[in-house]
Amino acid sequence: MALEHHGKCIDWQWEESLGWENRPPTGDEEFEAGERKDWVYHWKSPALLKCNPQGMIPTLLDESTGKTVTESLICIEFIDEIAKVAGSTASPLLPTDPFDKAHVRLMADRMNKKVTSNYYSALVRQDETERADAFQGILNGLEEFVLSSKGLYQGGDDGLNLVDCVLFPYAWRLYVLDHYRGFKVPPRTENRVWADYHAWLDRVECLDSVQKTLPDKEKYLIHVEKYASGRARSKVGNAVRRGKNALAYDDDE
Ligand SMILES: N[C@@H](CCC(=O)N[C@@H](CS)C(=O)NCC(=O)O)C(=O)O
After folding, report:
1. Whose CA is closest to atom 9 on ligand 1?
2. CB of 56 shorter than 6 A to ligand 1
3. Are residues 142 and 114 both part of a single domain?
């Protein structure tokens, strides 16, 4: 996609910079020898590590200045601002009123903590009670989202906002928790809240802009199996396996 910013044409392109690889054990790992062959590590491209030493996705890079933007919530706001400057007529992802904007940021942060983080806990933790507690946290987050929504989308009828953008990718992948853990989101027939939730999920999934971003469901199940079996040695996988939340990965892991 090309956008105009400060009179310059900005071309955006993706670079695949995360992958998975089996690595021979070094002998310093903290797991039993018998488990070693099964652990799967992240491969991170040198280009990613150069502009974000933490090696986390998303990372945006402006090649002309070397400036970077990281952290998904901040990246979404950044893209929204760039689009506005470039004259986009799409409805903005954040409202202009400072109070409304503060509320949207707060809700986006709550969805990140209650849904995104608990998704990894429900998937990676091996203790059933911990997993069930995490899934309950997700359901509480979804209910909070529905009750806070002002229309077809979280902020009203005009289009997606930051909260929808943060929640949807994880709401969409909850079939993974049903598959690996047997955790089911209540059906639309349960009550008004769940009817509204499923209507929102269907509505967002049907958007062209969203369709383009969705992976194949079967392939994604295979991709996350390494998390479900606790074998993923990514920063996120390590943090959750060690009992922290998915957002609390350490810089040096
Ligand atoms: N708090 C970060 C988390 C992003 C995140 O978990 N990214 C994953 C995407 S697969 C990642 O880069 N994982 C690499 C790793 O865990 O080492 C954000 O919201 O941007």
Report:
1. 57
2. yes
3. yes
Which residue has the CA at smallest separation from atom 2 of ligand 1? 71
Give strand pairing partners of 233: 41
Q: How far is the CA of 140 from the centre of ligand 1 (A)?
A: 23
- Is residue 214 within 8 Å of residue 205, measured between CB atoms? yes
Ligand 1 near 188 CB (within 6 A): no
Q: In this structure, is residue 141 part of a structural domain?
A: yes
Q: Which structure tokens are listed for 24? A: 């021979």
Position 61 pLDDT exceeds 70: yes
Check pocket membership of 69 for ligand 1, CB cut-off 6 A. no
Whether residue 122 sits in one domain with residue 235: yes
> Residue 92 in 3-state DSSP?
coil
Residue 253 lies in a domain: no
86 lies in which domain range? 1-90
- The CA distances from residue 194 to 150, 175, 176, 187, 190, in Å, are 16, 16, 19, 6, 6
Q: Which residue is it, tokens 């990514």?
A: 234
Q: E strand or H helix at 2, and its extent?
A: strand 2-5
Residue-wise pLDDT for 18-53, tens only, equals 888 877 666 666 655 455 556 788 889 999 999 999
Cα dihedral 155/157/158/161 (nearest 10): 30
